[in-house]
Amino acid sequence: MINAFSVDVEDYYQVAAFGKIIDPKDWNNRESRVVQNTRKLLDILKTAGTPVKATFFVLGCIADRFPDLAPEITSHGHEIASHGWMHQLVYSMTEDEFRDDVRRTRKLLQEQSGQDVLGYRAPSWSIVKRTPWAHRVLVEEGYRYDSSVFPIHHDLHGNADAPKEIHPIETEAGTILEFPPAVVRRFGQNLPTGGGGYFRFFPYFITARWLRSVNQEGRPFVFYLHPWEVDPGQPHIQGAPLKSRFRHYLNLHKTEGRLKRLLNGFEFAPIRDVLARSR
Question: How confident is the model at residue 155 (pLDDT cuts 50, 70, 90)?
Answer without folding.
Answer: low
